[in-house]
């Protein structure tokens, strides 16, 4: 017995129907069927003792006084690390003299001097520190004779270009007295 012929449009219609069914099924997958990962930011602990050892050893080699760790500057640094991690970029108005001054003021951190180093992509603290030493502007901040305290933070991003974002904030609070000119 002969099989009836199917219309010529049937394979294309069947293919279109199957494709629509597959796409509709994606919405039922966990996570809504998104093919891209959702961006997740994670604040990472930083070894403060290691950071102090590195910066103070470096400063002492250059005849400068040691810095003290300041948890308030950790908080300022963490907010900035999240800010740049959200953007997957260090290019932001917040990274300027005015931006740092405004952020320190907003946090209630009265100060005579402030400086900030940002870094992205460094896998660990020694790598970030070496990167700052190798950059003229960042190195100037590490060797700033007017600052007395330091804080640091790191935020990781699961997607994007850089993944690791570092911020070191250096300052001289009013409590440490007005700096003298060298």
From TrEMBL:
Matching CDD domains: CAP_bacterial
Natural source organism: Roseibium marinum
Domain SCP: 52-168
Entry-linked InterPro entries: CAP_dom (IPR014044), CAP_sf (IPR035940)
Pfam families registered for this protein in UniProt: CAP (PF00188)
Organismal lineage: Bacteria, Pseudomonadati, Pseudomonadota, Alphaproteobacteria, Hyphomicrobiales
Protein's name according to its UniProt entry: Cysteine-rich secretory protein family protein
